[in-house]
């Protein structure tokens, strides 16, 4: 029975969903949303803050400042509240309402940027504001998840070894990319493991992580409008890209089975299924990482009007349920099935 006195002391590290019946392909989904910050970003936030404390970069009167599309902001809000630091999050108009309200409920200040810069988009505008704040107040400390090695080290120390413990015969690992902290930490760790593991990065169409020109992306979490400084492609075997419409179909299909996951989980599962459909999966052990849960996306991915307005009717059209799906018939259960 875990008993804790600080919120970041608890993180469910050993929960997986077996998606074989739903996908018609083997896939174990590592659920990272069961902690008080509600996402995988708890680990990066904890590592970045505690490492800065050890180095003396953060002192009692520091103001933590960070640019985040939401989940890191919530995790930092929680840790800052617990440790007694002030925290200012700079986000943009794609940040979910629930996420912003959570940060404010935890005592943080939130700046929402709604206009991007010509060359750097909304992210460029966020980073410019962070730089201005740090220049104006010497108490401000920018943790800089995009360049901070403690971001990927969190996954090198925690996420990858946890997966290896659970799946000693792991063959393929599917990882969604934003800052690429999760990808680089896991990829570096598995590079030296006792067996080769194929590292497959999953990105959103419209993201510039792997060098494509940036395009419209409405779902926060995955993807970046610039190339992430942490990325070292020498550790990545393959990158697959997923259309946001497929992300939404997959999220809604999972929800119809009772699993309400966040947007990047839909992206990763959709990309993984596509990859598995193209390969011989007999005897294969594949794992994918689900960064968060679905409550933060109720007014977007799970809101039919929002989906229809941005992606059209097709995304909500019913498709035939997978053969041998094994579930009892349920009115409307086949709505929006991606698999
Ligand atoms: C929901 C969600 N998915 C995926 C990611 C990407 O993780 P990383 O920044 O480690 O690449 C994030 C990071 O913000 C996230 O919040």
From TrEMBL:
Domain of life: Bacteria
Pfam families listed in its UniProt record: PALP
Database matches in Gene3D superfamilies: 3.40.50.1100
Cofactors named for this entry: pyridoxal 5'-phosphate
Domain Tryptophan synthase beta chain-like PALP: 19-284
UniProt entry keywords in alphabetical sequence: Pyridoxal phosphate, Transferase
InterPro entries: Cys_Synth/Cystath_Beta-Synth, SbnA, TrpB-like_PALP, TrpB-like_PALP_sf
Oligomeric and partner information: Homodimer.
Full protein name: 2,3-diaminopropionate biosynthesis protein SbnA
Organism per entry: Streptomyces xantholiticus
